[in-house]
Amino acid sequence: MIELTGKRALVTGAARGIGAGIAIELAAKGADVAITYERSADRAAEVVRAIKANGRHGIAIQADSADPAAVKRSVEAAAGQLGGLDILVNNAGIGRVGPLTELGLADLDALLNINVRAVVLASQAAIPHLREGGRIISIGSTLAERVPFAGSTVYAMTKSALHAFTRGLSRELGPQGITVNLVQPGSIDTDMNPADGEQADQLRSLTALGRYGKAEEIAAVVAFLASPAAGLITGAMITADAGFSA
Ligand code: NDP
């Protein structure tokens, strides 16, 4: 039984895609939820409406994960407006594909800043608010386990950085009864990786189940990890990838 009544959550990058699915699922299980977004104010407002339709408190905060001050401000705003913070979901992420020789400095910085640095900074800002039973859940990628094609070298590298971060932080926060875990999706049908995209058939063919996942299927894993039922799980990489890494 997944029960999050009374919990307060912040989900980064949740105007669309996996983050939106997570925010709505956490609200459906009883949590009040703050989300961040970069540009999609209208989509963020839709997610807030869906949170409120579950009878929960929902707020949207514009914050570019590439901006350290904005990341810190968003965590403080979420904790302030929700009256505390129990769950941080580091979901915001970007992909950049292509040969390493063609990856420019701006793209490299964006990948590192959004996929790695923002996770560290949001966690740093959230820790003083978290209590016993608190949760830090980050969204990695199955590409940190297996990279079966060319073109995503640095993206995969940013996601593998979250392995050591998750393990190390679980040791740091374990004595306080706070768990830290990483969810590693495979191909999930979103704007980032549409199920009818150019590479979709190749990606599907690399899975055991022969299909893409849905945002709701990742949200279900996150909701479980956020719940008291998952209290023994920490420092773990939970892969939900249709068997892509099998
Ligand atoms: P989408 O591109 O569909 O959505 C990304 C979300 O993150 C949007 O809400 C977007 O906000 C937000 N976002 C992007 N950049 C920033 C930023 N700089 N600051 C704040 N918010 C930002 O991505 P997905 O839902 O597919 O991906 C979510 C996470 O899951 C990412 O970490 C991704 O790496 C990971 N993942 C995705 C997989 C997939 O197949 N889809 C597979 C494995 C991992 P806005 O709308 O305002 O731009």
TrEMBL record:
Record GO terms (molecular function): oxidoreductase activity
Top-rank lineage group of the source organism: Bacteria
InterPro entries linked to this entry: NAD(P)-bd_dom_sf, SDR_fam
Any Pfam family: adh_short_C2
Keywords per UniProt: Oxidoreductase
Family affiliation: Belongs to the short-chain dehydrogenases/reductases (SDR) family.
Protein's name in the database: NAD(P)-dependent dehydrogenase (Short-subunit alcohol dehydrogenase family)
Originating organism: Rhodopseudomonas pentothenatexigens
